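Q: Structure tokens for this one, please.
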Amino acid sequence: MIKKSKKVIITGLISTITAAYLFGSFAQAKDSNKTSVSSPKEKLEAYIKFTQILNVIEKEYVDDVNTTDLVDKALKGLMTNLDAHSTFMDKKSYKELSVQTKGEFGGLGISVGMKDGVLTVIAPLDGTPAFKAGIKAGDIILKIDDKATLGMTIDESVKIMRGKPKTDILLTIIRKNEPKPLEIKITRDIIKIQSVYGKNIENYDDSLYIHITSFDQKVVEGVKKAIKDHNNTKGIVLDLRNDPGGLLDQAIGLVDLFVDKGVIVSQKGKSKFENVEYKATKENTDLKTPIVVLVNGGSASASEIVAGALQDFNRSIIVGEKTFGKGSVQIVMPIGKDEALKLTVARYYLPSGRTIQAEGVTPDIPVHFAKVEYLDNTISLKERDLKKHLQSELDKIDSNKTKPKKIEVKDLNSSEEDNATINKTLITEDQLEKDNQLKSAVDILKALIITNKGKK
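A: Here is the predicted structure, written as tokens:
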């Protein structure tokens, strides 16, 4: 950070004031034609107003205040009001960021964001404490322990939720269709995540299921390996549900496996240095294998880029629910040695030019999550057998040869799958019946494979 003497600062301020008033008449515009860009005079008036208020607080506030603390708090408020992802990091916050990026820490395995001004779960990661405790995408976090989240930034909430492994935390959440808030106790742990799962699908030998839980540095290689290990792949179900995103280069690399040309994603900002296009390459590209992508409200950031890009290139069918809508770019800009700004500097744009931010990706075929229900046809008889069958049933009843069967009602809160060992290499028919989104994706993929026959 460049240091300046008081004399230089005063000289610069005088120059600014002089310039502002010299060009004041030019800068003034009609109120009806005002834009979001301030004129030099408006900027100067804003700076003066801030200084005046700061001086009044220092002189008149009931308690003694520290000017540096006041400015830091003002900066935090300023950044929070820009957007949910921008923030000012003081010495303590910046130090904690360095520890989190370099060291090992305990967490919940939960990705959060701001939606409609409230702290919302984007997704719990598979196998993590939050996932095991029953946290779901779309849950609104009302309190963390005894601290209300209203007015709390994302960084502040994450800082509270992180802590020493094996320590407990209590989340009070609001969940759709629940009549009252829920309290969920979670024990922090070291978060270790497998990002890519490749599985066969029972009775669909030519189809491959690939589940990506988050975009870490191993995603592209993991997907390549899954495809290589499944030699007979004629179609792929790519499951990005509850995937909160991660590394941009992995999202680009994944799309590049299935697209040979064009802009996969671009980012645009005020600075020309933030205007970047990421293009597909022809090398080792698969243009033939049909793909169905599964998304939901927990799909965010990198997973939205993948789904949206494949959709725009007409390279896949998107099935499920509308995604979260996180499509902005943040960078950490150090201020001196001990402080920094995390600032939103650009937005991501898909190949068609549409933005993800606050819009998300809309599925080609909307399917809400539910179990697949089958209607039992209790009488399955041919016309020629019907009369004979009914007569025999009447004879049984009249002679008291049979008694009505007692139906045992099982505990509706229990699940056989809870106690069963889930096959890590196979999607079973039972799993498909409990997940209609996945069942729909598999059926759609089968249709694509059939219609793809004979194509060269």
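A few notes: Confidence is low (pLDDT under 50) at residues 1-34, 402-422. Residues 196-366 form a domain with the 2-enoyl-CoA Hydratase; Chain A, domain 1 fold (CATH 3.90.226.10).
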